[in-house]
Amino acid sequence: MSDATKYDKWLAESGPAALVIREWLMPVEGSDGVLFPATYAAGGDFLGGYNIDGDPNGKNICLIDSVGAQANRIEPIFSKPEYAGLVPKVVIKAGEKEVNLLEAGHRAGDAIVRCSGLQKELHDAFNEVMRGNAEPLAKIAPTSLVFGVWDSRDTQVKLPRLVASTIRALDVRPLTRSANYLVQQQVDYVKDGLLPEPASKTEKDEYSVRGFQNALATKTHGGVIATGGIRRDATLSLAALRLLTVGKDEKKTLALKRYILGLALTAFTATPLGYLRQGCLLVINPDKSREFVEVYADGKRVACALTHDDAKAFATATVGPKAFEIGKDRTENFDKKLAEADVKGEGEGGGKKKKAAKKTESTAGGL
Question: Of 11, 36, 88, 305, which residue is 20 to 30 A from 210 by alpha carbon distance?
């Protein structure tokens, strides 16, 4: 059995519905350390701040890193030298900046990619996906098939995530913090005649903002203590992966599925831990066991021993003339005229699809 056929059992209809990893994490300071979750803007009934569901001071769940944030942390690993050759290097040059497609926020559906020399190719590739042929998109943006993509401003094609990872803290106790910013005691800018007395509260506040008077911060977000632990849940949906096809060409379809499986396994077994944000540096909790299982449609769970090195070796074996030939490395320029036309609804997608995207975007899940 060649390495490229090693996991064909997972591509078979009788194979598992998904692979699941559950692992327990903790702050570097220890399991009772303070960590800072992501904060979110207010909207609807949500007042803003930490996303805590349930009793804020009892049984609850706090979102530490969302599925979108985790995807954006994992996807760029494919630009590292040790993963060279697994995906094409596609770069968009915008002025003095160069943006790798792996770092574009909305992947193949991102504005910077759509308004470049790739516009027509991607437009056609998304339409091919609708016709049951995912190969053209895999040649340009294979990680869009792994982490999901929504071409919301053009064709409206929406592809699910194969790999999803989320970090949550259980039963958190929110903390607050207060601070004083004191200007240098050697100088009183107003008393010493260096600045006029502020004429209003607004002007006084501006003095504080600019560092000319004391600034006070009271009862702001101070992180949380996760009394119930911190858990990362990751899923690789094999059932969704099996839906990918290259039309009715069974040989090409199998090569595509093996290739995307290789990328998905590589991403799935990577460890997107460490520094998430200021005050949130997480590591594996050695006192709690990790679960890695194959989950079947009938609920059966079978332990899985796949390592990240195994996944990389398999992914490498799925690429090549006798397997799946990835697209060419390329650099395209951001096209200002295409962007201006896109804003007016005059691009490949046209104005009608642009309006439809605005109507549905607020209710769709983030990618």
Answer: 36
CA angle 225, 227, 230 (to 5 degrees): 80
* Chain segment 55-67, per-residue pLDDT in tens: 877 799 999 999 9
Which residues, in sequence order, are CB contacts of 132 under 8 Å at separation 6+? 245, 247
Q: Are residues 159 and 112 in the same domain?
A: yes
Task: Report the C-alpha dihedral over residues 85, 160, 250, 322, rounded to 10 degrees.
Answer: 0
Is 196 found in the same domain as 118? no
Range of the structural domain that residue 89 is part of? 3-170+227-361
Please indicate, yes or no, whether residues 209 and 97 belong to a single structural domain of this protein.
no
69, 145: one domain: yes
Residue of 126, 122, 117, 118 whose CA lies nearest to 159: 126
Query: How far is residue 85 CA from its own chain's centroid?
Result: 22
The residue written with tokens 């968009």 in the block is 92
For residues 249 and 137, what is the distance between their CA atoms, to the nearest angstrom? 16
- Tokens representing 162 are 């194969």
Q: Quick check: 170 and 226 in contact, CB under 8 A?
A: yes
**Paired tokens of 122:** 């991607």
What is the 8-class DSSP label of residue 99? Answer: E
- For residue range 178-199, what is the model confidence (pLDDT) as tens digits? 666 555 556 777 777 788 888 8
Structure tokens, 322? 């006798």
CA 278 to chain centre: 18
Lookup: tokens for 144: 């869009």
Is pTM, for the whole model, over 0.85?
A: no
Q: Cα separation of 269 and 165, whole Å? A: 11
Indicate whether 221 pLDDT > 80: no
How far is Cα 206 from Cα 195, in angstroms, rounded to an integer? 12
- In this structure, is residue 47 part of a structural domain? yes
